[in-house]
Specification:
Order of helices and strands of chain A: EEHEEEEHEHEHEHEEHEHEEEE
Structural class of chain B: alpha/beta
Order of helices and strands of chain B: EEEEEEHEHEHHEHEEEEEHEHEHH
CATH architecture of the largest domain in chain A: 3-Layer(aba) Sandwich
Helix content of chain A: 10-25%
GO biological process, one term (chains A, D): pyrimidine nucleotide biosynthetic process
Shape of chain B: globular
Organism (chains A, D): Sporotomaculum syntrophicum
CATH topology of the largest domain in chain A: Rossmann fold
GO molecular function (chains A, D): 2 iron, 2 sulfur cluster binding; flavin adenine dinucleotide binding; metal ion binding; oxidoreductase activity
Largest sheet of chain B: 8 strands, parallel
Number of helices of chain B: 9
Shape of chain A: globular
Strand order of the largest sheet of chain B: 3-16-15-10-9-8-7-4
Strand content of chain B: 15-25%
Oligomer: heterotetramer
Bound molecules: flavin-adenine dinucleotide, flavin mononucleotide, FE2/S2 (inorganic) cluster
Number of strands of chain A: 16
Helix content of chain B: 25-40%
Number of strands of chain B: 16
Radius of gyration of chain B: 18 Å
Keywords (chains A, D): 2Fe-2S, Electron transport, FAD, Flavoprotein, Iron, Iron-sulfur, Metal-binding, Transport
Largest sheet of chain A: 7 strands, antiparallel
Protein name (chains A, D): Dihydroorotate dehydrogenase B (NAD(+)), electron transfer subunit
CATH superfamily of the largest domain in chain A: Nucleotide-binding domain of ferredoxin-NADP reductase (FNR) module
Distance between the termini of chain A: 31 Å
Chain lengths: ~270, ~300, ~300, ~270
């Protein structure tokens, strides 16, 4: 269950250009969180910046009660956050609906081959997902595709290799791996008919990806970003346009119905 | 110590409620807030038929404030009455339902439907929503139409009726006088100010709806002024004050200016426990400053004050 | 790159000026700002006779904003014309004099006195000051009186006349239409919103004048909306946009919404170099985004935008 | 001449309950400043708190270019300031009209006996004044009276003794020195007809003090606090009611005409 809490900052470091990882001691959060969920962070004590900032859970250690977030500095909230090296953080979480963990019961067989696709800072929540997938013992059925602008901006790929996954990499400038969008790598992989795809990244990448999954008839889930105020389903601000099975379009709320949605239901 | 107030017939055990649209139907905040400690729960704007609301993005952050253009997304009065009110009624806290419509008849129908529904303690008539074209602010910018809506609602319900005023008018006191004259039991103020934010990189408005309603601490001085002016002109009608309340001190500004009760809106998003912090903080203030009755504080800052140029 | 603009006959080498009352007579900021780099200097509100202004405290800080109730303290038009203008004229930068009065005749007399004074490039007629009882906002909340003031000033001066509108009205577009119809060469918006802050410990208003004018980043969304609406309704009249501008990006919001020029007000207090930072930042933006003429940006965010409910 | 500058924070420590001293490296400020002047400090990068905060110059070392300020945490600006342990501070200064240094030319004789009276945090600028007075070689003609709520809250008295001045102390609770208001000590001293009095402290104390000086016919100066926006005479917000020699009341601006005013001209 989500809680409002003061979490102690136990570490904070820059892991890439403008990308920071902050570690929090938050045992109840570590216990309750599932991959794809986020925390809602108050950035400062005054009223500018005013609203909390939603940041995905990046990594969890249930034993030690430590939770990590990974974020890119893009504005005043994240700049403030990057300046916190110790002290306490006012957070709410875990929030939202995370990725569906395909268990043996749900799929008939848990060994369905899975693809995990991340673009840019979208890799952040995927590390937690991969931590959990590693724990299921089916790591060999999981392949990871990561995209970034260049080698320097590539995130989590070393850590993911250490978890034992096979990783392919794409960069816009070819400074690491394949030169081009990560969705090109996906196109190849789709020919091997993966059973399920998890993805997080910038909206244009996810849009392309959803189209590809649709054409290939492959199911999957994507994590989307919408502007949020409350984070708990009360303000109705974080709407994402979805269509139901019958094709009828409605709004769903990224903070409670998402941020993870079935790839097929998001209307881009 | 007595912190209970009578807001035009709605008896609240303390002067703190939630601002419509910022607390959902209350249940969303149950994990963080002991709802039973609230003076009342004011829920999301409710219309006759369900509404989808506006296209995203629906919010934009601004300095010490936010713009919203939710567009009255709500499940419609029928589901509110049938599905939501039973859950809320069980809490035993007065529920104030914020109602909106495109026409006088809409308002009347919603009000009629809610009359007698268990748990509903009063109606807050939103004639000031800046985010829908018809109804909303149209009714709220003209004293004649505002009093028509008030009368339409009053004539079909036995519930206390609070009319919610827009700050986007030249003469707020004239609006207050009009709706008070038409039978409003209380006034609530303020709704949001109309604003626009532009995305300089995309060279387009940030909001899907272009304009939105500005709320949060940024507007507090405007809201306190509204309460002050209306209380000065109409000292007998109770006011539900809101606009940028984050803390007990903020709430006390409204009460000292003349509000009988206060609502926390945007503040809930920043601090989900803001309502209870306000309840506790007001009690503490009363203790420290030796007030036994919250009513002693209402409008106290106006006593012996005259403008230098009056 | 061409950043020069024509604000209703006032030719400015860049679109940036100062908001009246926040930059004194310019000379106060000389140590920090190369005044000759400004598009124009707009000076403190000037009245026929010298004024002492309101009793202190005259300001209160609020979230991302401030309230002021200076009350038009100024040395009177005679000293402005005789003592201050010669110093300012020497700079070779267009000077816009903000004028105010209690009566139509006051406005006309001040305007007449300034006609032909070397260095004065235009008049900004303040019909929207919330901090004086007579004149000021009284003229600014009614289209008829607003157009009377405009006509009174236009009839006695050959200088370009900018009329400064108040946001504290129900229908800003009607006000704009009225003063444009009466001959205003440009409009400036917005003046401050009326607000009150209460000192919770003393249980009294913070300001000596009780009410004050709210300025600063807090009001920016309201100001951008005002510019947007008026530019949409009256695309031909140039607008001087202001309200919470701290940076070039803030200024660009106003220009993209439809302002021909912008003024930095409260921002000067926070960053005395804000005006020049805005000048430089606009140029940089134009370079980065490939704009050669500042005029290409004016109102650009309005192109192809319709409200979802229009 | 006043400048806008980024000054490096070279130290910051709590010297009393809620009272902090921050040291800045600002050679041009150190050169230009005179006692009684202040600096105008931006507290944060966002817009809440919005306005700069005026804080007096507490101590100056012209040789090293170091300037100290001493401030009490009373709200969000000063709380922010107390949190700055290193980095840079955005300041303007020196600003305002400081204390009049009575030189031999001005008085006929520089040895006119002087009293320096401080109440609470009002002691802050007086230390700089005493630094300068110590430099004149007439320290033996200067007496210092300091008031505070209690011994713990007493400021600068040790430092002032080290400068070689004789100090008398008054506290509300008698936990140090005389029990009662510092103006009681002043009453005694006035019997010895000091030639000039410098004072800074809370408004009620200054009001009493000005009345006493008037009755005793002793000239002096007081430093007042008014709410300020610009700090440079442009916004006209910081008005102080004064009366001229003819008794005519007008407004003067604490940021440029003050914060130091002749004791006789302030209308309380
Ligand atoms: C569910 C969710 C999970 C997220 N997880 C991460 C993460 O793990 N790492 C990470 O770096 N970023 C993540 N983001 C994006 C992150 O929330 C924004 O980058 C951040 O809010 C920007 O705040 P700012 O003050 O720095 O920027 P500003 O631009 O100053 O923010 C202004 C406003 O816009 C909102 N906003 C700005 N960008 C975004 C965005 N992309 N999505 C939603 N709201 C935005 C802010 O919350 C704020 O209200 C996530 C977003 C969502 C919705
Ligand atoms: C010329 C001058 C010199 C000063 N020197 C010192 C000093 O050396 N040490 C020190 O501790 N304090 C000094 N002060 C007072 C100091 O400026 C205030 O305590 C400080 O501004 C409070 O800011 P805040 O954000 O912490 O409080 P808040 O109450 O949050 O401030 C809100 C607003 O009120 C203004 N304000 C609050 N208190 C005062 C006050 N007493 N005087 C003027 N404005 C105020 C603030 O500047 C701000 O604009 C001085 C004031 C002036 C005018
Ligand atoms: C996201 C959001 C949704 C709102 N929805 C409604 C609504 O449905 N009906 C209504 O009368 N006011 C609505 N309001 C206005 C608030 O009830 C309140 O009047 C306003 O936000 C000022 O208070 P605040 O500054 O505390 O938020 C909404 C405000 C926000 C921020
Ligand atoms: C201290 C102060 C004094 C002002 N004096 C005047 C004035 O004399 N005449 C006038 O038309 N506007 C006056 N204004 C309003 C400003 O010119 C401007 O319209 C308003 O502050 C909004 O801009 P800002 O948010 O950038 O400050 C004053 C504003 C402030 C803060
Ligand atoms: S952020 Fe409030 S409903 Fe999702
Ligand atoms: S602070 Fe602006 S005039 Fe003194």
């Amino acid at each position: 269950m989500s809680q409002l809490m003061m979490a102690e900052i136990t570490g904070c470091q820059e892991t890439g250009p403008g990308v920071w990882v902050t570690e929090l001691l938050a045992p109840s959060l570590a216990q309750a969180a599932v991959p794809g969920q986020f925390i809602h962070i108050r950035c400062g004590e005054d009223s500018d910046p005013l609203l909390r900032r939603p940041i995905s859970i990046h990594a969890v250690c249930r034993q030690s009660g430590l939770v990590k977030i990974m974020f890119q500095v893009v504005g005043k909230g994240t700049a403030w956050l990057a300046g916190r090296r110790d002290g306490w953080l006012d957070i709410m979480g875990p929030l939202g609906r995370g990725f569906t963990m395909l268990t043996a019961e749900k799929t008939g067989t848990a060994a369905v081959p899975r693809l995990v696709v991340g673009g840019g800072i979208g890799a952040a929540p995927l590390y937690f997902l991969l931590q959990e997938l590693a724990g299921t013992g089916y790591a060999e059925h999981v392949k990871v595709l990561l995209g970034a602008r260049n080698a320097e901006q590539l995130l989590i790929h070393n850590a993911v290799k250490l978890l034992g996954f096979s990783v392919s990499v794409a960069t816009d400038d070819g400074s690491a791996g394949y030169q081009g969008p990560v969705t090109d790598l996906l196109a190849e992989e789709l020919q091997c008919k993966p059973g399920y795809v998890y993805a997080c990244g910038p909206a244009p990448m996810l849009k392309t990806l959803c189209g590809m999954l649709h054409n290939a008839g492959v199911p999957g889930e994507v994590s989307v970003e919408e502007r949020m105020a409350c984070g708990v389903g009360a303000c109705l601000s974080c709407v994402c346009r979805v269509k139901d099975a019958g094709g009828l379009e409605t709004f769903r709320h990224a903070c409670v119905d998402g941020p993870v949605f079935a790839a097929g239901e998001v209307v881009w | 110590m007595n912190t209970s107030v009578d807001l035009g017939g709605i008896v609240m055990k303390n002067p703190v409620t939630t601002a419509s649209g910022t607390f959902g139907f209350g249940l969303e905040y149950q994990t963080y807030v002991d709802l039973q400690r609230l003076g009342a729960i004011t829920v999301k704007g409710t219309t006759l038929k369900p509404r989808q609301g506006n296209p995203p993005p629906r919010i934009a952050e601004t300095p010490s404030g936010m713009l919203n253009a939710i567009g009255l997304q709500n499940p419609g009065v029928e589901r509110v009455a049938e599905e939501i009110m039973p859950q809320l009624a069980a809490l035993g806290v007065p529920v104030i339902i914020n109602i909106a419509g495109d026409t006088l008849e809409d308002y009347a129908q919603v009000a009629r439907r809610l009359d007698g529904v268990t748990g509903v303690a009063g109606l807050e008539v939103n004639i000031s929503c800046p985010n829908v074209k018809k109804g909303g602010i149209q009714f709220g910018s003209n004293p004649v139409t505002a009093s028509e809506v008030t009368r339409a609602v009053k004539s079909v319900t036995g519930l206390p009726v609070i009319v919610k005023l827009s700050p986007n008018v030249t003469d707020l006191v004239a609006m207050a006088e009009a709706v008070a004259g038409a039978g409003a039991d209380a006034l609530s103020m303020i709704n949001t100010l109309v604003g626009i934010a532009i995305d300089v990189d995309r060279r387009r408005p940030v909001l899907g709806n272009i304009t939105g309603g500005l709320s949060g601490p940024a507007i507090r001085p405007v809201a306190v002024r509204a309460v002050w002016q209306v209380h000065r002109a109409l000292p007998l009608i109770p006011i539900l004050g809101m606009g940028g309340i984050m803390t007990a001190r903020d709430a006390l500004e409204f009460i000292l200016a003349g509000a009988t009760a206060v609502a926390v809106g945007t503040g809930n998003f920043v601090n989900p426990r803001a309502t209870l912090d306000v309840v506790d903080g007001i009690e503490q203030y009363m203790k420290e400053h030796g007030f036994n009755e919250i009513s002693e504080l209402v409008g106290l800052a106006q006593r012996d004050t005259t403008r230098s140029d009056e």
